[in-house]
Design goal:
This protein is an all-alpha fold. The protein has 13 helices and no strands. It has helices at about 5-40, 45-75, 75-100, 110-125, 130-140, 145-170, 180-195, 220-250, 255-280, 285-305, 310-335, 345-370, 375-395. Helix 1 runs parallel beside helix 3 and helix 6 (about 145-170) crosses helix 11. The longest helix is centred in the first third of the chain and has 39 residues, at about 5-40. Keywords: Membrane, Transmembrane, Transmembrane helix. This is MFS transporter. It comes from Marinomonas pontica.
Length: about 400
């Protein structure tokens, strides 16, 4: 194989895997738009609908932790194929179950248990996709380009999270359950493309169980906690933003939803802009990423606190999104530099699990802080960001980590 053909195959594999991440983001987010109205239509209580989403999130946290060893044994590409195939099948079956319920062929109780089981299987499968892809891309990228690769991983998933609700809204015009079938079909196509076009000659399968890692004493542990904290902040701000906009500007529900949409889009666009363009273009290192991310994050909290206008909220959301765009690749790149190559898959799995934990805790913690006062969450986040930076400086200087 010529060098140009090899380079072309590497680029194709890279974009196919990033497309899989985008599909995972779609699968994670479109359910928030599609499931609640359908659940109400078939007679499920709002609390039961919420438990379906919570069960999936909790399963993801546990399953992601376990996938590291599986990836080492069966390979990164096979893990992606299994995860995407599970995703395609369970999403399509969920659509079928909901369709049967809408047609009154299944009771609300039966539907709940079927969908609950399918959400568990869905989460078990996709929990292995992110760590598999992260490990693959790190193995096929030199160290100086690692931060830009990780930034592209974050951007791809973020784009999928944005597209998910849009897909649900557009495709629902074809039928309430149409998004489930179409998104399942796209995920299946992605799995097939990976089967035929993505090869991993660099993976060495581990047939013997590797020694257990005590993560609590590993130098990477502070960065795993930072990863969880950054996702906690992101999901928590998304949760309380509707409360803030409604309370600060005295809006009704329809007006709040409209204004919230613009705020969320602003945050997402700035995050994607930083991760897809700025980080790869300037090949930013870990130190620059961490200081830039924390600096912009602190500015965002100050804007939330002191700027009372809606333009101020948009500015704060833009700064917060940009800060996350720098912070996410900085934290994850630091993690990958602190472990050996044969531990990358278990690290990626642990990181995915910690991020899932942060995503689950963020809305609860920040909503609770919001009840204490409208500005309390932002003061808390500012303190957390500054603490994160101090811990990073300590790790870099005292523990001799070279980033």
């Amino acid at each position: 194989m010529t060098l140009s053909n090899s380079s072309s195959n590497e680029r194709l594999s890279r974009w196919l895997l990033l497309s899989c991440l985008m599909a995972v983001g779609i699968g994670q987010s479109f359910i928030f738009t599609s499931l609640p109205p359908i659940g109400r239509e078939i007679g499920l209580a709002d609390v039961r609908i919420s438990t379906l989403i919570t069960a999936g999130a909790a399963t993801f946290v546990v399953a992601a932790f376990l996938w590291g060893g599986i990836i080492n044994r069966i390979g990164r590409v096979r893990s992606v194929i299994i995860g995407m195939s599970s995703y395609a099948l369970t999403i399509a079956l969920t659509g079928f179950v909901l369709q049967e319920a809408l047609a009154k062929h299944l009771s609300a109780e039966q539907t709940y248990y079927w969908v609950f089981a399918l959400r568990i299987v869905f989460s078990l499968g996709i929990a292995g996709v992110l760590p598999s892809i992260q490990t693959y891309l790190i193995a096929h990228t030199d160290i100086k380009h690692r931060s830009s690769t990780i930034a592209m991983i974050g951007a791809s998933f973020s784009i999928g999270m944005i597209l998910g609700p849009a897909f649900a809204s557009l495709l629902s015009s074809l039928g309430l359950t149409a998004p489930f079938y179409i998104i399942g079909f796209l995920a299946g196509c992605a799995a097939l493309l990976v089967v035929f076009f993505v090869k991993d000659a660099k993976h060495v399968r581990q047939f013997e169980k590797p020694p257990a890692i005590n993560w609590l004493v590993q130098p990477v542990m502070p960065f795993l906690c930072m990863s969880s904290l950054s996702i906690l902040a992101m999901t928590g701000v998304q949760q309380i933003m509707s409360f803030l906009i409604q309370d600060r500007f005295q809006l009704d529900v329809a007006q709040t939803t409209h204004q919230l949409g613009f705020a969320m889009m602003t945050m997402s666009c700035f995050s994607i802009l930083v991760q897809m363009i700025l980080v790869p273009r300037f090949q930013l290192g870990v130190v620059t990423l961490m200081f830039s991310g924390v600096g912009l994050g602190v500015l965002a909290q100050l804007a939330f606190i002191y700027l009372d206008s809606y333009v101020g909220v948009l500015l704060a959301m833009g700064l917060f999104g940009a800060g996350f765009g720098f912070l996410f690749p900085g934290i994850v790149t630091a993690q990958t530099l602190l472990v050996k190559d044969d531990q990358q898959s278990r690290l990626a799995s642990m990181n995915a699990s910690m991020q899932g934990l942060g995503a689950a805790l963020g809305p609860v913690i920040l909503a609770s802080l919001y009840q204490l006062g409208q500005l309390v969450p932002f003061f808390a986040l500012m303190a957390a960001l500054l603490l994160m930076l101090l811990v990073f400086i300590y790790c870099k200087t005292k523990l001799k980590h070279v980033f």
